[in-house]
Each structure stands twice: as structure tokens, then as C-alpha cells.
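Appendix C: a fully annotated inverse folding record. The material below is reproduced so that readers can follow the format used throughout the book. The structure is listed first as C-alpha cells, followed by the designed sequence.
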């Protein structure tokens, strides 16, 4: 399928490609949940996805409709992913940590027609949250929702067997689909191609609220293929996937890399270090993904030495800067001699550079590898736009099949991010060596990366401004050994609010924004450090935060 660098691996849709893979190895294991011994072959899973696809068609979901999913990595998350892909609907992936404030925004901004969700996640009741946002659900039949607040929302689907007022459940839709003729699915496939949007993921921006990144089959199927190639995947490989499916790390680096090589997914519903290391032994996994904190958690678990890691050979450590010692430990203690790292961003589907399984240890720990085939990468001077040479630091950009179609309903933001000639701005600072290996050295944006989660200060600032005590606020990343960075909020109080405490600000945030965005540290200040032109110097805020934390330690407050 691949001929040098002149044509892509595939120009098929995800639906057609997967059907071909099923035909070539119907009885090969596709998905395994080791903690419940749930196993689907390629053929068994495909039948389930087809039934759900027909069920969605039967209730009125069609090409281009937006279907959200709010759930941890439960088995039917993937059923919805492939069912929507088979009918040309757009799967809108929703972060499981979202609270009411964020879910309201995504429901509204995405024009979501249907939302599939589980009961709860880590103490947050999605059912209660949605009933609060969409009170009409409590009194309507499941096929006649009319929401004043969200006029596009017509269906809510509970991912599970339980029945809830106003909602379908997964089993009902699958049964409905089984009673539909296959011809409705075949007809649906005729009306979209691999350049149609198939997936939409929300990524936070430096200004305002998250933006819906529109991705196509062409984007993510080919990106997944090249990722798998760099790890030498075959249908003998078994990937332990413990990162969330709502991120590109899960859906592309994981699922797309697996289906393009006929491999097997060993799934965890959420990260658990003991379950991960026991699953590696039980299922003889050859590959595992995670952010550095996940690998640290597994290798530091008191029962780690009880389990056999000899089946492992490769995987991906990504999501935040990979510490050299952690990478070294993964190679030595987990047998991951062919471990790789990937660099990219959601807007790039997401990867466009990666180390290779055969690269030297030095390259694996000090670089993010070389560019993928069929993608151009360059480093420019952020001020002049001039392309820079080896070892010169500038903004890394890419152009190719992987670049998103744009941000949903945000043409101005799309134009700021993608140049007219197709070059995508990353906002990250990088260098490249003479051999074409790239290293990420900093960020133009003020993004905070906390344990692999991207947090954009402006989004948190906008939320904190809704507190009555806040006159002004700036958010910056405070360095942390475990998570890389933690959220620090620097607040100037309004007059008359002298009694407001750090705990008050944190309590105000918990339950309204994702837990990982809640400020770990709150500093009340009288002013912000400014440049001569009046711009806030965030790096000085970071230094100030570290000084104040040191003082708290000396005073016995930490």
C-alpha cells in the first residue's frame, strides 16, 4: 500500500479499511478487557459496531451529525467510535473530567445531536449533571427531546443496561439495529469519503474556551499507521492501552495504530498501576502507552517485581517531557528496549515526529525523533517567519495529510493556526540536528502540562473571574517533580474581600471545572510583574510562586 514517500498508506475511510481488516483476519483478537475477561475478535466486534450503526441510523443519526461520548474507556466507547465512523457521523470526544460548566460549553458549541454517556466517573454523576443542564429529559420520551438551552440535542444514550428517563440505552439501540436491513448501512457508506470530518476533539486555547478540532479518516488513519510503523507493529503485537480514549493519544496513537497493523488492544477502563502490570503478564503484552507519571507509578508499585515484563518490547512515553531516568528505567525494568516518543498536537492528528524502535538511547531520551513520511516540518523564527537551520531555536510547524480541517465554527482561529499555504503553527519551540531529529525546548504559548493533561491558563483565568472576590487573575505553571507542572493562580482581590482564603478559591472551583485544572496553589498579590509596555511577565510569576512556596515551607505551612 505504501510506495516510498509519494502516496499515503491508505485513502480509504476508517469504515472501509476496518471491514477489509476484518475480512482478512476475522477470528484474530481485537479487544480484550483482562479484568473482566471480555474478548472480541475482529469479526465479533465488527458485528456489534454494525448493529449499533444501524440503530443510530434508525433513530435519525446521519452523515455529519455530531455524536458526543462522555465515558471512561468502557468497551462500548469503541463501539460508538466505529459505529459513527460507519455512517459518516462525527464522534465528539468529551473529557471525562469535565464538570457542568465545561459540559454546557461543549454541548452548545459542538451542536451535538446525541450524547452517549455512562453513569458517573470518580464521584461525578453524569446523569445528575445532565438532568440539571437539560431538565426536559426528566419529562420527555426518549425520542422527543426538545431542549431550550441546547436546540440541537435530540438524543441521550446511556452506555449501559440501566434505563433512565428520556434516554435510550446501548442495548436497545443494538437490538434496534439488529432488526434493520443491512442495506441502510451500505447506503449510508455511499455518502461520505475519507476527507469528511469523522472525529472532533476539544482542545483548550490560549484565549477563551476549548476549540473543536475537526479530524478526518485521512488524518487519523494514516497518522496511526506511521506511528505503528515506527514501533514495528504486526498482527502479533498486543498493546496495553491505559490512556484515555477521548485524547488522540488513545484514539490515534492507540486504536488507529492497532487497526492498521491488525494488532490487538488490551484495554483498561482507566489507569491503575497494579492492574496494568498484572495485565502485561496475563495477556503477554508487547507494547504499552503512558505519560511519564504512569510509568513511574507502575515501576514504583510495591508489587512490581512480582510480575513478568519479558513480553514487552516497545510502546510510547509521551504527553509531557519524558525524564531521562524514567525512560532509562522503562527500558531496563520493563524490557522496553524499543520504546518510542511521539511529538505533535491534536490539530496535527496528532503526531508528526517520532523516535524509532531502532534509535539509540541518546536519541530516544533527548529528541522526539524524525518527521513522518508525507509530512513537511520546519522551524521558523517566530518574529520574522524566516526558516531556521540546524540547532537554531524557533517555532516548529508542519504541513501534510495530518493537518486538521479546522476548528469547528471558528474560522478566525483556524486562520491564525493554519497558514494559507497549509502550514500548521504548533506554538512550541524546537531545534533540529543535522540528522533530522527534533527536540522540543520550550513553549511560545503559556500552556501548562500537568501529568500529560494540557491546561491553558486563559481558560482557568476566565473561570476564576466569575468569583465575586477576583479583581484580576493570572494563572501560571508551578514546577513540580511528580506532575511536571501544577496550576498556580495569582489573584488580586477586590476591596472588601480580605477574608477570602486559598481554600475558598479551591472550593469554588471543585465541581465546576475539571479537577486537574483546579489551582493547586493560590497566591494573593497586590500587583503583577509587567514589562515596560505593560505586558504581564508570566515567567516572573512562576519565580514569585516558587519563592512564596519556599516561604510557606519555612513557616511550616506546607
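Designed amino acids, in order:
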Amino acid at each position: 500500500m505504501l510506495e516510498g514517500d509519494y502516496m499515503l498508506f491508505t485513502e480509504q475511510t476508517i469504515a472501509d479499511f476496518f471491514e477489509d481488516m476484518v475480512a482478512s483476519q476475522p477470528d484474530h483478537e481485537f479487544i480484550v478487557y483482562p479484568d473482566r475477561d471480555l474478548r472480541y475478535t475482529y469479526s465479533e466486534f465488527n458485528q456489534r459496531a454494525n448493529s449499533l450503526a444501524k440503530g443510530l441510523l434508525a433513530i435519525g443519526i446521519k452523515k455529519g451529525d455530531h455524536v458526543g461520548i462522555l465515558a471512561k474507556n468502557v468497551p462500548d466507547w469503541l463501539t460508538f467510535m466505529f459505529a459513527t465512523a460507519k455512517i459518516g457521523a462525527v464522534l465528539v470526544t468529551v473529557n471525562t473530567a469535565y464538570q457542568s460548566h465545561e459540559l454546557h460549553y461543549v454541548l452548545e458549541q459542538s451542536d451535538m445531536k446525541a450524547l452517549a454517556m455512562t453513569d458517573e466517573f470518580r464521584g461525578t454523576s453524569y446523569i445528575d449533571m445532565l438532568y440539571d443542564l437539560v431538565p426536559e429529559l426528566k419529562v420527555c420520551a426518549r425520542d422527543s427531546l426538545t431542549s431550550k438551552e441546547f436546540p440541537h440535542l435530540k438524543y441521550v444514550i446511556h452506555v449501559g443496561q440501566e434505563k433512565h428517563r428520556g434516554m435510550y440505552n446501548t442495548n436497545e439501540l443494538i437490538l434496534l439495529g439488529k432488526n434493520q436491513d443491512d442495506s441502510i448501512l451500505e447506503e449510508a457508506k455511499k455518502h461520505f469519503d475519507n476527507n469528511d470530518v469523522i472525529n472532533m476533539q476539544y482542545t483548550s486555547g490560549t484565549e477563551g474556551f476549548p476549540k473543536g478540532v475537526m479530524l478526518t479518516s485521512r488524518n487519523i488513519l494514516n497518522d496511526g499507521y506511521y506511528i505503528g510503523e515506527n514501533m514495528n507493529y504486526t498482527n502479533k503485537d498486543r498493546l496495553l492501552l491505559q490512556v484515555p480514549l477521548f485524547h488522540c493519544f488513545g484514539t490515534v496513537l492507540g486504536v488507529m495504530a492497532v487497526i492498521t497493523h491488525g494488532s490487538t488492544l488490551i484495554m483498561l477502563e482507566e489507569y491503575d498501576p497494579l492492574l496494568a502490570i498484572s495485565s502485561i503478564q496475563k495477556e503477554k503484552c508487547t507494547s504499552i502507552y503512558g505519560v511519564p507519571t504512569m510509568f513511574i507509578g507502575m515501576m514504583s508499585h510495591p508489587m512490581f517485581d512480582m510480575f513478568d515484563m519479558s513480553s514487552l518490547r516497545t510502546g510510547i512515553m509521551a504527553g509531557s517531557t519524558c525524564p531521562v531516568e524514567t525512560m532509562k528505567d522503562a527500558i531496563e525494568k520493563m524490557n522496553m528496549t524499543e520504546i518510542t516518543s511521539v511529538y505533535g498536537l491534536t490539530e496535527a492528528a496528532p503526531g508528526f515526529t517520532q523516535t524509532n524502535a531502532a534509535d539509540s538511547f541518546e536519541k530516544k531520551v533527548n529528541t522526539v525523533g524524525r518527521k513522518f513520511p508525507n509530512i513537511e516540518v520546519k522551524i521558523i523564527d517566530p518574529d520574522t517567519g524566516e526558516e531556521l537551520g540546524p540547532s537554531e531555536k524557533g517555532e516548529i510547524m508542519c504541513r501534510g495529510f495530518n493537518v486538521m480541517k479546522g476548528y469547528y465554527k471558528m474560522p478566525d482561529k483556524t486562520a491564525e493556526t493554519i497558514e494559507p499555504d497549509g502550514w500548521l503553527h504548533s506554538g512550541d519551540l524546537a531545534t533540529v540536528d543535522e540528522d533530522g531529529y527534533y527536540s522540543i525546548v520550550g513553549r511560545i504559548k503559556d500552556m501548562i502540562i500537568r501529568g500529560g493533561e494540557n491546561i491553558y491558563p486563559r481558560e482557568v483565568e476566565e473561570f476564576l473571574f466569575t468569583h465575586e472576590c477576583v479583581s484580576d487573575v493570572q494563572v501560571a505553571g508551578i514546577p513540580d517533580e511528580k506532575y511536571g507542572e501544577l496550576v498556580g493562580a495569582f489573584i488580586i482581590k477586590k476591596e472588601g474581600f480580605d477574608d477570602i482564603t486559598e481554600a475558598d478559591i479551591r472550593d469554588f472551583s471543585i465541581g465546576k471545572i475539571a479537577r486537574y485544572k483546579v489551582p493547586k496553589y493560590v497566591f494573593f498579590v497586590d500587583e503583577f510583574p509587567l514589562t515596560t509596555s505593560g505586558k504581564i511577565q508570566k515567567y516572573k510569576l512562576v519565580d514569585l510562586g516558587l519563592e512564596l512556596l519556599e516561604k510557606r515551607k519555612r513557616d511550616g505551612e506546607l
